[in-house]
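User: Predict the complex.
Assistant: Input components as received:
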Amino acid sequence: MAADLRQSHAATAQAVTNATVVLPLTITKTVNLNFGKFMSGAAAAAGTVVVGTDNAQSVTGGVTTTAGLGATATAATFTVTGEPSSTYALTYPAQTALTGTGSPMTISTFSPAVDVGSVGTFDGTGTQELIVGATLNVGANQTAGSYTGTLDVAVNYN
Amino acid sequence: MPEKSHLLLRIATLSALPMLVATVVFAAPTAVTKDQDLNFGKIAGGGGYSGTVTVSTSGVRSFTGNITPLGTSFASARFTITGNAGKAYIITLPTNFVINAGPDQLTISALTSSIPLTGAIPAGGVLPFAVGATLTISNAQTNSMYSGTFTVSVK
């Protein structure tokens, strides 16, 4: 004969539950990338046009320019927002082509401002201005005219 | 000789008496303890982005909508039931609960258990189980660290 004493009330245990919500990232272009005006072909050689993060235009190889021609050059400017103090990584396209009257010209190098680089950290405001210069490859005897393209910059938390 | 034979009969009768044994078994109370908290980890949401995040009982995180789960730190909750082997148990989980960051709230619902909510404690008297759940993030959710508690009861 056995007697079974039943529990008249339940046993309980408590668990903590945590979740951290962070602001989604946004990236907005505020200034387009503009290589300005320049001349190709004087030496019948290919070259490059560079726009620095200070908007200064410079050329190499067979490309020539003047102060007046380069005055309209601007580095691209983006505003990136996200969770304050979080780190993020920027991704640039490997290559972007500008198309126009002649053969396409490609942008081979993106040069973000030194203090941001390709990985950034938001300060307490969660807003970061990103200035991006670039280098454009210009063919020998590149046909004169306007060339345009689009540049996609992606930002992700890392 | 009549006296001797009478004594022998008495001894034989005594040895045939059955043994009566009374036993009382006190059942060990069924208990439940928490081994691990529930953690959804870090999620980019709010600011126009909404959706749900689910942590399964096996600790796998998934999502719906356009929120973005981040990082690798998240876990299902874990508990252990102890009690007498063979004894029936009933687990009760909350239907939903709220976790807070000041006045802001996140609703947790659809709690799941890794074992049936009713069953029997196995041999050994120890029965671990995990609990998963789903978190809902609104498109106006405030970015913050949210925390709260939930209670599991076992009978």
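The mean pLDDT of chain A is 88.
Let me know if you want any component modeled separately.
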